[in-house]
Amino acid sequence: MSDINTKLGELLRLEREQKGVTLEDLSVRLKISESNLRSIETGDTKAVPSELYFNLFTKSYCEAMGVDYTRTKEAIKMELEEKPPEEGLSKSKGSAGAVNRSEAESETTLLKKLGWLFGAIVVAFVLFLTASKLFFSDKSSAKSTEGDETTEQATSSDQTELVAFDWNVPGYKPDEPLKLKLTPRGESWTTVIADGDTVLFQNLMPGRSYEAEAEYRLLVSVGVPRSVDVELNGVEVNLADPETRRISRVYIDQMNIDNILNPQLADNPSDTGSGAGE
């Protein structure tokens, strides 16, 4: 029994139940026996005369439910390839954890270097302003002795500008973590990969909430998007593809999260006034 066929059959069963279609009605419509349709929903290829018949029956089932057979099967295959192997699981996780720690350390080191560089620039700027202030003050005193009132007024204006300078330079603020929350209203399934680790790979049951968190990136797939409410950093979002209405391997990181939380920014990239300021 193939995991791909099992997942596809489970998805078809959920679609059929969501549309309120019984196996008996579907059997009459497709002219396929109920036992064969039930075998498709359980992914049992051996219960059908041959694998060729199983695939043909499955395609007919998909067409009746409005499911793209080829793209859905490819998406499920890609999700299953992301699943950690049962054997040597601890070793695999250990290696993945070491790689992730190495990546995190590299990114942390880079952020520290950027912080030091920013601090050095601020210090140099402050020293320059201080030296300028002292220079203009000495020049003003020398000119005042000679009675040059014009130069004294210009120096006074420069000092006023230096006093009005805002010295409250904002400190470095790290990005907030990416927080994903799934709240199913009906049966579905999901795969969520956070910073390279598979954190969710399971069926979703109504009445429960499922959460995942990442520092840098998320990869999200949901079996039946219309049955699941999705929140990102506390904001309800729509991750479904507008053409396929599927949520398959949606990539989220610190670079595109603003466009996901505020779709109008992505639709109107030139309109940076109200969107970016609020």
Could you describe the 3D structure shown?
The chain has 278 residues and is of the alpha+beta class. The chain has helices at 3-18, 23-30, 34-42, 51-65, 69-81, 89-145, 149-164, 257-261, 263-267, 274-277, and strands at 178-184, 188-194, 197-204, 210-214, 217-222, 228-232, 235-237, 247-253. It has ten helices and eight strands. A hairpin with a 2-residue loop joins strand 6 and strand 7. The protein starts with a helix and ends with a helix. Helix 6 packs antiparallel against helix 7. It has a four-stranded antiparallel sheet with strand order 4-1-6-7. The chain has a four-stranded antiparallel sheet with strand order 3-2-5-8. The model is unreliable at 87-99 and 271-278 (pLDDT under 50). The chain folds into three domains: 3-81, 434 Repressor (Amino-terminal Domain), CATH 1.10.260; 89-164; 178-268, no CATH class.
Quick structural overview:
This protein has helices at 3-18, 23-30, 34-42, 51-65, 69-81, 89-145, 149-164, 257-261, 263-267, 274-277, and strands at residues 178-184, 188-194, 197-204, 210-214, 217-222, 228-232, 235-237, 247-253.
